[in-house]
Amino acid sequence: MQCHRVNEVIELLQPYWLKHADLSLAQVLAKLAQEAGYEGDLLEVPDDLIIYHLKMLETPEGDMIPGIKKDCENDFKAALLKARGIE
After folding, report:
1. Contact in structure between 23 and 35 (CB atoms under 8 Å)
2. Residue by residue, what is the 3-state secondary structure of 11-68?
3. 67 phi, psi to nearest 5 deg
4. Domain 3-83: CATH superfamily, name plus number
5. What is the spatial distance between Cα 66 and Cα 49, in angstroms, rounded to a whole number?
6. Which of 19, 27, 40, 62 could potentially form a cystine with 23 if both were Cys, beta carbons 3.0 to 4.6 Å apart?
7. Can you tell me the distance from the alpha carbon of 76 to that of 44, in angstroms, rounded to the nearest whole number?
């Protein structure tokens, strides 16, 4: 994992872990994976799942997923033109 991703995980994880201060780090990660709907082995939880789940916890209900919002076009015609390379 790259240094900036480590910093991002720590920054996102801190407020969540403070809310659940009675849990160990492993328990916090297991809880996050469970909340995100991950059913596999805890050792195989992808980093992205933890990062995006923590980001979505801070996002108001109904807001678009971070990372998708930048590619979203409200106007269908503008989206078609952009897809064809005509902006």
Report:
1. no
2. HHHHHHHHHCCCCCHHHHHHHHHHHCCCCCCHHHCCHHHHHHHHHHHHCCCCCCCCCC
3. 100, -30
4. Protein of unknown function DUF1040 (1.10.1580.20)
5. 13
6. 27
7. 39
